[in-house]
Each structure stands twice: as structure tokens, then as C-alpha cells.
Design a protein that fits this description.
The structure holds 2 protein chains of 2 kinds.
Chain A (H helix, E strand, L loop, with lengths): L5 E16 L4 E17 L3 E5 L6 H8 L7 E7 L5 E3 L5 H8 L2 E4 L13 H11 L5 H14 L16 H13 L5 E5 L7 H18 L2 E6 L2 H7 L2 E6 L2 E7 H6 L4 H9 L39 H5 L5 E4 L2 E3 L16
Parallel strand pairs in A: 3-8, 3-9, 6-7, 7-8
Antiparallel strand pairs in A: 1-2, 1-4, 4-5, 9-10, 10-12, 11-12
Helix pairs in contact in A: 3-4, 3-5, 4-5, 5-6
Chain B lengths: L6 E14 L2 E14 L3 E5 L6 H8 L8 E9 L6 E3 L8 H6 L4 E4 L3 H4 L6 H12 L4 H14 L5 H5 L8 H14 L4 E5 L7 H18 L2 E6 L2 H7 L2 E6 L2 E7 H6 L4 H8 L51 E4 L2 E3 L2 H10 L1
Parallel strand pairs in B: 3-8, 3-9, 6-7, 7-8
Antiparallel strand pairs in B: 1-2, 1-4, 4-5, 9-10, 10-12, 11-12
Helix pairs in contact in B: 4-5, 4-7, 5-7, 7-8
The chains are: A alpha/beta, B alpha/beta.
Chain lengths: 339, 340
């Protein structure tokens, strides 16, 4: 595993969902939701994962937690003592200890909280499950967690319906923080919120990162949010990572045509910026029946013969900048407007 | 708001109130809007700002329990008369003729807006038969033509397909085709791209702009995404808690906005290309529920510039500070007057 600072290293991760048909439920094919993905996250770092719906970004996030069992690949995680463990090889019993270190923050603050549990029970549940605290100690811990995320600790006995969307998301974050995790997977955690509330939650996540030295895997389809919060970015398309680099490099100097088109598709909140927009034709390829060669070639305006025949490798095209495109080194692609 | 012969829709002092156990919910409280020919009016606001209810009331598709006050005047192109939509009976012949005819609507969730048990073709035929022709063959031609216009591949086949057979982007296209099939003078688009991915959103926005050029339809575009607003609108109304806070042309909105809420909204948005690692200036607190609100400015509780005794004394009017630029803020108004 990379350097001392590396917290998580995902290697050649695959998740294939079988498609079953007929009376005998024979497997007739696979949906390649995640296909040969590599990523590393350092301690205290935010890795932004961006892509359109159905590109496998959530599946990847869940595979890292082993909430979904990955088909292949290794997930190396450095535990608090500094030992590196491969999470995919852990028995269910051992896994429990590692789950403490990794938590998930969900998208929808309305469906991710049980309406019949009080805030005390919701935030306290991970503490009870992991036998971290009980009784009065639990109460105190939950109170302090509520204060950390900016909730009034007097509202301990209230039910989720008494809170607004932004406050509920704070409850979800407090629950994720309860076990003192080191890696938080934020799956579209601010997408369901209004702009003004979204800014509050993004600020909170950044404060918490500083305070507890957290690492984030931040999954979102919103490029503005991703650019704001991430140190590194990975762009996914139909189950594959097509580009990965430091945030600035991706936005200023994209190396994959798909990234270029994503950047140009994002509406700029300034009517004076008139930009040449690349409007992608067609739709995202079907991961059960992807096109030959490079998955992006039917929508790519730079596609040549080789793209139809051969799948490009995910290679380092510039220092620290990875891309999966045959022409990554030759193409002069445009970055985001306003850069 | 100024109105001239180019104005085709005017909303005057619109109030929509719901009586609840908790009190009177003022979803919309004194909204003025005007829409001119070939104009795109963007309405932007957070959830609960009343933007959807306002536009739904234009078509009179709000719940019957709602109490509606004010005027919604449509200058009908067909008859050349002014019709006050607010006073028409909800299920009457007149309003039903306008719905989907002169004014049509695109919804956010194309899956929910289509009936799952009828084919795309049948659903679109219904509109066309109601509003444009009685001849079935001609109606089918119109439907196929409008499917072609929105860039649907293979329209003859799509005509016989059910909504679930189409992908999200295609469904939204079908929805736009359906709305345009009746040749409306006004198109209301309620967050039409919110459920779509950026690349699909780009396709749909381009399509809407092209169709507007071609047909000259006026559009009311509702969204919470300021980026989309910048791209689509000519004029923008910023709504908060049932009131228009600022009303101006799109360039002024992004480069010379005056209302503290508009400014805060612009600052709180993480945007591609912004200076990085800058902390977002979030608006504190939450959008209050519009029940039993105190007197004064709606934004008082969250405004950084709010002054006790100035902002919360009486209801604040929407004031013209320049031609075509209206602001609902006491402080801006005072400054403006002092400067002259």
C-alpha cells in the first residue's frame, strides 16, 4: 500500500450483478456496475466521485463498505494502529470492527432516519451496537455529538419529523460520526438540500474534517459541489473510472473527452459567459450490453477506428493524472468555463 | 410591473392561502409577475418559496381547499380578449380550453406526469384532439411531427410505446413534445431538468431554446438552479416565502442584484470556476414555514443586514429602483432614495 498517509486503497474492484432469466433462473449476462476501478484516499483527504446516474458510483461506495459484496478486487484499509488489512478477506465478525472506522451518510434525510426513533436512539444506535457507550454515558456522548454538528442538544428526545431537511441531514452526520470513524462515504449527501442549506452542510463537513482528520469519499453528480469540496476527483462512466487526478487538474486540464463534455454541460451561473457547449448526443451506454472498445466512443466527437476496437487502458498521462483514452496525450481539451 | 401590448400574461397581487389546523398558511402572498411575448421568465427560489404554487394557480390546478385572491390576466391570442383566469370556475369549459391549449405545462418528474397504462401516442393525441383538430389522422400527423421536432428517434415506433419503455431523457422529450403539440402561447416548465443528469439537462435546455426560437412561445421557467436561470431566462423573479423579493433582467441579477437574499443565494452556491478553498457563505437557519409569520420582511430572521425596528415593523412593498428592476427591501430602498 502506497505511503504512510494512505488510508484506503481500492485495487481492480469489480462488481458484476448477474441478470437471471427464465424458469431456471439461469444467468444470461452481467451488469458490470463497477468494472476494474482503482482509487486511493489519503488521510484527511476528500476524494470526489462524479458521474451520471447509473455509472456505478454508489455501488462503488457501498462495495468499499462491503454493504454490497464486491465480485473481485481488494480494499486495503489502514487501521488505527497503522496495520494494513484487506477488507475483502475479513470474516463477518472481524468486519464489524472495521465498520466502525467507515461510515455512510445518505442522500435523502427523510428516508434515512427511522420516524419512530428519537434522536437519542438514532444517534446512539451505533454506540450501543458497537458497545462503546451506554446509559448516562451514552446520553452525554449523543449530546456532545449533536453540538458538534450544530444541533441543539436539548432536542434529544424529539422525533425526526420535528426537524427540517437540513437538520435531519445533521442528525445523519452525527450518527455517522458516533463511532469516531476515519472514513466517511457521503453518497449524494447534499443533493436533496436547498442551495442555502447545502452550503451549511458543506461547511459543516469541512469543519468536521479539520477537527477529526476525517477522509471523505464524496459521491455527487454536481460538479460545483465536487470542485468545492474535493482534493482529488475520479470521473466514472459506465462502471469504469475514465479520469482521475487532483481537482484543479481535472477542471483546468481534462484529459478525457467525457470529462470535457461534463464540464461544458454544467450551466454557468453567469449570463455573460457564453461558451461553446458540447452537447452529447444519445444516452449513457447500457452497462449490461456496453459498446465495443471504449464505452464512450458512440458519443465521443474525437472517436477514431481504434476506439471502436480496443478498450483504452487507465494510464498515467501526466504526473498524478490518470485517464483511460487512447488519445489522452494528444487531445487539447477545454477545461471548465471561468477557469 | 409594466405592461404593454406585448404582455400576454399578468399576475397581479396573487394570494394563495391554505387553511390548516396550525393556522393560515400563506403559500403565495402578493405576487406580481408579467410575461411578454417570446420572453422567458425564470422563477428561482428554495423549496417552500411558492414558485410551483404560483404557476399551478395560473392553470388553476391547485387544490380546491386553497383560497385564491388576485388577478391572473391572460391576453388571449385567439380571441384577443383579456381573460381573468383567477375568477374562472375550476372545472369550467373555459379554463379547460386554456389548459394544455393556450397554456401548457412541463412537469419535473416525467414518469409521474404520464399515465403508465396509455401509450405515448394516445396521451398526446388526447391533447391534440381537444385543442387543435377533430380529425384523428391529422392529429396523429401533428403528434408525430412534434415528436420529430423534439429529436425523438423513430417517432412512429415511440408513438405506440408506453412511458416505461422510454429512458428518462426521452420521457422528458416526449413531455415537451406533448406540451408543444397544442401550439401553446405560454409554456410553464416546472423544474423540467432537475431530475436529469447534466448531459441530458444540456440536451433538454438546448432543445427548449431552439423550440422557443422557432415557435415564439413564451416560457415560465421554474428552477432552483441559478446556472439554469442564467442560461435560459430573459427576466428573473427571485421568490422567498411566497413573495417576489427581486425582479430584474438576468444580467442585472448576476451582476447588480440588490436584495440581500439574492446576494446570499448567489454566494452560497458552490460553482465551477469559483475561487477554491473559499468557505461558502451559507445563509444561516432554515426557511420558516409560512404560517403566522410576523410582520415585516420575510427574510428578516436570516438576513445579515436586518435591523430591528426597521425591517420588522411593517410589510415591505416591492419597489422599483430602476427601469425593470424591482426590489423588496427597506434598506435598499432607503439607500436608493438617499443617493438621488
Amino acid at each position: 500500500m502506497g505511503t504512510e498517509a494512505t488510508l484506503l486503497e481500492v485495487n481492480a474492484m469489480k462488481k458484476y450483478f448477474p441478470i437471471k432469466k427464465g424458469f431456471l433462473k439461469r444467468t444470461v449476462g452481467y451488469v458490470k456496475a463497477v468494472d476494474d476501478v482503482h482509487l486511493t484516499i489519503n488521510e484527511g483527504e476528500t476524494f470526489g466521485l462524479v458521474g451520471e446516474s447509473g455509472c456505478g458510483k454508489s455501488t462503488l461506495g457501498r462495495c468499499i463498505l462491503r454493504a454490497i459484496e464486491p465480485t473481485e478486487g481488494s480494499i486495503k484499509f489502514r487501521n488505527q494502529k497503522g496495520n494494513v488489512v484487506d477488507i475483502t478477506e475479513l470474516s463477518p465478525k472481524d468486519l464489524r470492527n472495521y465498520r466502525r472506522d467507515m461510515q455512510l451518510i445518505f442522500q435523502d434525510p427523510y428516508s434515512s432516519l427511522n420516524p419512530r426513533m428519537t434522536v437519542l436512539n438514532i444517534i446512539g444506535e451505533p454506540l450501543i451496537c458497537n458497545k462503546i457507550a451506554s446509559g448516562n454515558q451514552l446520553r452525554e456522548r449523543v449530546k456532545s455529538l449533536m453540538e458538534v454538528v450544530g444541533l441543539n442538544s436539548k432536542h434529544l428526545e424529539r422525533y425526526p419529523h420535528a426537524f427540517s431537511g437540513g437538520q435531519r441531514q445533521r442528525i445523519g452526520i452525527a450518527r455517522a460520526l458516533a463511532t469516531n470513524p476515519r472514513l466517511l462515504i457521503c453518497d449524494e449527501s447534499v443533493s436533496a438540500l436547498d442551495v442555502s442549506i447545502q452550503a451549511q452542510i458543506l461547511n459543516l463537513l469541512e469543519d468536521l474534517q479539520e477537527q477529526f482528520n476525517l477522509s471523505y469519499l464524496f459521491i455527487s453528480h454536481d460538479l460545483g459541489v465536487i470542485q468545492h469540496i474535493s482534493d482529488k476527483i475520479g470521473v466514472m462512466y459506465v462502471g469504469k473510472m475514465v479520469e482521475s487526478a487532483a481537482t484543479d487538474d481535472v477542471f483546468k486540464n481534462p484529459k478525457h473527452p467525457y470529462t470535457e463534455s461534463l464540464l461544458s454541460a454544467k450551466p454557468v451561473p453567469d449570463p455573460r459567459v457564453k461558451k461553446e457547449r458540447i452537447v452529447l448526443q444519445g444516452e449513457v451506454a447500457n452497462p449490461a450490453n456496453p459498446p465495443s472498445g471504449c464505452y464512450f466512443h458512440p458519443r465521443c466527437k474525437y472517436a477514431k477506428d481504434i476506439c471502436r476496437k480496443k478498450a483504452p487502458a487507465f494510464e498515467e498521462v501526466a504526473p498524478g493524472h490518470f485517464a483511460a483514452c487512447h488519445f489522452a496525450k494528444d487531445l487539447q481539451l477545454t477545461g471548465a468555463a471561468g477557469q | 410591473m409594466i405592461s404593454d401590448e406585448q404582455t400576454i400574461l399578468e399576475v397581479k397581487d396573487l394570494k394563495i392561502h391554505f387553511k390548516l389546523h396550525e393556522g393560515l398558511l400563506k403559500a403565495v402572498d402578493g405576487v406580481d409577475l408579467s410575461l411578454r411575448k417570446k420572453e422567458t421568465l425564470g422563477i428561482v427560489g428554495e423549496s417552500g418559496s411558492g414558485k410551483s404554487v404560483t404557476t399551478q394557480s395560473i392553470l388553476r390546478i391547485i387544490p380546491q381547499t386553497a383560497h385564491l385572491e388576485g388577478e391572473i390576466i391572460l391576453r388571449s391570442e385567439e380571441t384577443g380578449k383579456n381573460i381573468n383566469l383567477a375568477t374562472l370556475p375550476m372545472n369550467g369549459k373555459e379554463i379547460r380550453k386554456i389548459r394544455g391549449g393556450e397554456i401548457s405545462m412541463i412537469f419535473q418528474e416525467p414518469m409521474k406526469a404520464f399515465s403508465p397504462v396509455h401509450t405515448i401516442g394516445n396521451q398526446m393525441m388526447e391533447t391534440v384532439l381537444l385543442h387543435r383538430t377533430k380529425d384523428k389522422n391529422e392529429a396523429k400527423e401533428i403528434v408525430l411531427q412534434s415528436l420529430r421536432e423534439v429529436g425523438m428517434s423513430n417517432p412512429e415506433q415511440r408513438f405506440d410505446e408506453y412511458p416505461h419503455q422510454l429512458s428518462g431523457g426521452m420521457r422528458q422529450r416526449a413531455m415537451i413534445a406533448m406540451a408543444l403539440a397544442s401550439n401553446p402561447a405560454i409554456l410553464i416548465a416546472d423544474e423540467p431538468t432537475t431530475a436529469l443528469d447534466v448531459t441530458l439537462q444540456a440536451q433538454v435546455l438546448e432543445l427548449m431554446n431552439n423550440l422557443k426560437e422557432k415557435t415564439g412561445t413564451s416560457i415560465i421557467f421554474i428552477t432552483h438552479d441559478l446556472g439554469v436561470i442564467a442560461e435560459m431566462s430573459d427576466n428573473v423573479a427571485v421568490m422567498y416565502l411566497g413573495q417576489v423579493m427581486e425582479y430584474t433582467d438576468v444580467d442585472t441579477l448576476f451582476h447588480g442584484a440588490k436584495h440581500p437574499y439574492t446576494l446570499a443565494l448567489l454566494k452560497s452556491m458552490p460553482s465551477v470556476g469559483a475561487a477554491e478553498n473559499k468557505r461558502l457563505e451559507a445563509i444561516e437557519g432554515n426557511v420558516p414555514t409560512p404560517i403566522n409569520l410576523p410582520k415585516g420582511c420575510r427574510f428578516f430572521s436570516r438576513c445579515k443586514l436586518a435591523q430591528d425596528g426597521v425591517c420588522n415593523v411593517q410589510d415591505i412593498p416591492l419597489v422599483k429602483i430602476e427601469d425593470g428592476h424591482y426590489v423588496r427591501c427597506v434598506l435598499v430602498d432607503e439607500k436608493n432614495r438617499g443617493g438621488r
